[in-house]
């Protein structure tokens, strides 16, 4: 009898712990599903939804710029997912010689290049198909590790000088990793498996939705409610799918840059000093953003205006 009880409580104990391990992402899943629904509803029928979602858009935009019926996976194309005009230009560019192709090759070389101690980035990450797993919440260190910080941790652990987190070698290594991950057909797969990870997610979300800067608006004002609106002649992209395709080659930069570089640009435009790329704030913000894109295909590196 005792043995039976002991056995059944073991089973029960297991059941409870798997149950709670699964539930740490419950809120995040709710948020993610609501976001997918919001964007699919918004772009389901732009003409019909004009008053509700596009009160500031002109008749010309409604008729000639926006697409209707944009589905979940397509939002990884950013504003090109719903903007027929800029998508046509983008497609034309993608048919030509891609300005980041050489960077992927250079990235592969850097990935395999020996440090002074004979090791390399490949020794830290023997399989380059990892782009879909980052950011991860490291349960030992109890902190979010982004791909950028994971690469720099590897470099530092081998006694080398850390890489610039905005462009240059870091962007090239990330381009190679993104390329290999996309080639393997991977989808973003961010996990939240503890209370600490859940708290990190919530802090990232809070950052995204907090109004800040001299114009007192949040990331969400532009990339959720504002997605599809125009600002300085640019159509704002949706939060959904915002991390699937980095690093990007921007025509404005004439260079390949990391996701952190792109976000820092937006934060500066908001009139704020961006947090450091490897700071807790930046990493947690990225953790939240990437979770929102869970289940979406990695499609990097890519091109943007
Ligand atoms: C005033 C409006 C505004 C605010 C506020 C803003 N952004 Fe942006 N953001 C833009 C515009 C405009 C672009 C360029 C067009 C586009 O969305 O691709 C952009 C681009 C981006 C991109 C690149 C999207 C892509 O497809 O490559 C990311 C990522 C991004 N912003 C993140 C953020 C984050 C994170 C915040 C808050 C810290 C933020 N933005 C705040 C206007 C804004």
Features:
305 residues, mainly alpha, Cytochrome Bc1 Complex, Chain D, domain 2, 2 domains, two-stranded antiparallel sheet, 13 helices, disordered N terminus, binds heme C
Please give a structural write-up:
By secondary structure, this protein is mainly α. It has 2 domains: 28-97 and 191-304, Orthogonal Bundle (Cytochrome Bc1 Complex, Chain D, domain 2), CATH 1.10.760.10; 101-183, Cytochrome Bc1 Complex, Chain D, domain 2 (Orthogonal Bundle). 50% of the residues lie in helices and 6% in strands. It is built from 13 helices and 7 strands. The strands form 3 sheets. It has a 3-stranded mixed β-sheet with strand order 6-5-7. The protein has a two-stranded antiparallel ribbon with strand order 1-2. Strands 3-4 form a two-stranded antiparallel ribbon. A hairpin with a 4-residue loop joins β5 (248-250) and β6 (255-257). α6 packs across α9 (168-183) and α10 (195-209) packs across α13 (280-292). The longest helix has 22 residues, at 2-23. The radius of gyration is 21 Å and the shape is globular. Mean pLDDT is 92; it is low at 1-19. The structure holds heme C. Heme C binds at residues 78-79, 217, 219, 221-223, 231, 234, 236-237, 242, 248, 262-263, 266-267, 270, 304.
């Amino acid at each position: 009898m005792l043995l039976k009880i002991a056995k059944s409580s073991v089973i029960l104990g297991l059941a409870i712990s798997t149950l709670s391990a699964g539930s740490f992402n419950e809120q995040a899943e709710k948020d993610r599903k609501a976001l997918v629904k919001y964007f699919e509803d918004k772009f389901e029928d732009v003409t019909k939804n004009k008053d509700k979602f596009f009160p500031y858009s002109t008749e010309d935009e409604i008729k000639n710029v926006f697409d209707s019926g944009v589905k979940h996976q397509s939002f990884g194309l950013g504003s090109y997912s719903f903007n027929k005009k800029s998508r046509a230009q983008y497609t034309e560019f993608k048919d030509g010689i891609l300005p980041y192709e050489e960077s992927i090759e250079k990235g592969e070389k850097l990935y395999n290049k020996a440090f002074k101690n004979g090791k390399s980035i490949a020794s830290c990450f023997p399989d380059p198909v990892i782009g879909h797993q980052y950011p991860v919440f490291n349960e030992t260190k109890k902190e979010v590790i982004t791909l950028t910080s994971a690469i720099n941790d590897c470099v530092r652990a081998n006694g080398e000088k850390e890489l610039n987190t905005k462009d240059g070698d870091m962007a090239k290594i990330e381009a190679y990793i993104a390329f290999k991950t996309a080639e393997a057909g991977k989808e973003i797969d961010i996990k939240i498996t503890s209370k600490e990870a859940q708290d990190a997610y919530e802090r990232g979300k809070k950052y995204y939705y907090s109004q800040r800067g001299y114009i007192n608006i949040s990331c969400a004002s532009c990339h959720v409610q504002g997605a599809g609106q125009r600002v300085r002649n640019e159509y704002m992209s949706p939060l959904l799918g915002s991390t699937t395709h980095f690093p990007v080659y921007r025509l404005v930069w004439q260079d390949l840059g990391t996701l952190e570089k792109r976000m820092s640009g937006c934060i500066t435009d908001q009139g704020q000093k961006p947090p450091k790329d490897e700071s807790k704030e930046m990493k947690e913000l990225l953790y939240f953003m990437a979770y929102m894109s869970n289940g979406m295909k990695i499609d990097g590196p890519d091109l943007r205006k």
